[in-house]
């Protein structure tokens, strides 16, 4: 489904702030893979997701989604294949617009907008059902502005928007990190339910090692812009956090120095 | 206030309301302070009035003005999106460039006059209306038509994409919309309308002048803000009506202070002060609240 080959990206090239964020990273995802992504600060996790989403062109390498080479495509063209949820709950929704308007826009992801009325009455019932499934009591507030919702509610709506028309690839960039533990658990549970139901090919960055081990069928760890650990299936199921830390030290030759990850 | 002063204040509010709607589209919907209006407003007047002076139809003059303003908006849009020039500066550059263009449009003169020639308002005078009433009726027709159009357009898929662009570019790009296009489109419609206001106001006063654009952005902003404060922003239709309402209130205030003997030359200072106070209001309120809490 996703084929990332040897991608490289250096920020601020030739300056004192030069940062080699991705150093020949390759990754292949099969249809329906649910991959959790971990790694220390600056390991290149978000950079990898942003490269796949097309926020900027990579320096070299190629990215193929479902057989289509999207390496040269700008972000808005690739959006046809990709659903995204960001770390910042404010980022995935338009605050000044109604829940319904946000969902209507998301339901057309990747299509060129036309002159048809944006919020169609025919979609309203479907939206209401979908929002009801979030179990946040938002089903009777479809016409509320998204800006009035809590961070958790906004993130749940963003998740719904990202998955509303079954993307070929779902990118989750620490989408529960900014939420309180209870809400984070709820949004994560929701994520697993949707991914499971729609068999979505998913990349999920998390700083929580236990979540990374529990969710999905495969786990990768990034370090210095490369994948240093890649475990799947039974092997992944049998791992625990200390195992993972040992693997990291062996693979990278460094200590895991990310409190947030260890505490999670 | 005499009847004729009341009517003329009203029609001025309506015609400038079209400009205010244009400013509203950039300032509120797109979230860009677009200074192109200072050039596209006199551009609309120059194009419209020159066209009539050359024997053209007054209705066509308004259409041409809209098109000319649209082009000006597209230029600013291209400068901003494709050349990555900050929106404020992009608008200033277009505005300055338009100064020369406007003089060219008026046949290398700084103004052009159509006194005693037929204008779009003559049509209504033929029904026995006075000049002021004709402009009022005509202005009302334009404002109502534009509000209906804007309400429809910004409810469509394209319109929703433009509104989302002004609210959260990241989000709408992730939904597959090219924000360069939505920004350019927003600036196009906005400046088209501002130029249209220029053509209508130019016809009402019987001339166009290269200097008539100075301060239009501030007048537009004042109308938007006054309208929002007085008439609310509950939904998009309410917001559109509020902006026109704000424009009318602004004209009433101006007429009133002039009547009270204020020097005409102090008008711009007054307008700028109104906008400063309105923009500072949230901060002032916050300060007062904090002071009370302490």
Overall pLDDT score of chain A: 92
Largest interface: A-B, 34 and 22 residues
Strand order of the largest sheet of chain B: 1-2
Estimate what percentage of residues of chain B fall within beta strands: under 5%
State the helix count of chain A: 10
* Global Rg of chain B: 19 Å
Spatial gap, N to C terminus of chain A: 30 Å
Which percent band covers the strand fraction of chain A?
15-25%
CATH fourth-tier homologous superfamily of chain A: P-loop containing nucleotide triphosphate hydrolases
Structural class of chain A: alpha/beta
Largest sheet, spatial ordering of strands of chain A: 6-7-8-3-9-10
- Which outline of chain B best applies? globular
Taking pLDDT < 50 over at least 5 consecutive residues as the criterion, the unreliable ranges of chain A are: none
Mean pLDDT of chain B: 95
Uncertain residue segments of chain B: none
| Strand tally of chain A | 10
Shape of chain A: globular
Helix % of chain B is: over 70%
Determine the structural class of chain B based on helices, strands and strand pairing.
mainly alpha
Query: Could you give a short account of the major beta sheet of chain B?
Result: 2 strands, antiparallel
Instruction: Specify the oligomeric state.
Output: heterodimer
Nutshell version of this structure?
With 264 residues, chain A is of the alpha/beta class.
Overview of this structure, please?
The complex is a heterodimer of chains A (264) and B (294). Chain A contains ten helices and ten strands. In chain A, helix 3 runs parallel beside helix 5 and helix 5 runs parallel beside helix 6. With 264 residues, chain A is an alpha/beta fold. The mean pLDDT of chain A is 92. A six-stranded mixed sheet of chain A has the order 6-7-8-3-9-10, with helices on both faces. In chain A, strands 2-1-4-5 form a four-stranded antiparallel sheet, covered by helices on one side. The two termini of chain A are 30 Å apart. Chain A has one domain: Rossmann fold. With 294 residues, chain B is mostly helical. Chain B contains twelve helices and two strands, in the order ααααβαααααβααα. Chain B has a two-stranded antiparallel ribbon. The longest helix of chain B has 28 residues. Chain B is globular and about 60 Å long. The model of chain B has no long low-confidence stretch (mean pLDDT 95). At the A-B interface, helix 2 and helix 3 of A face helix 7 and helix 8 of B.
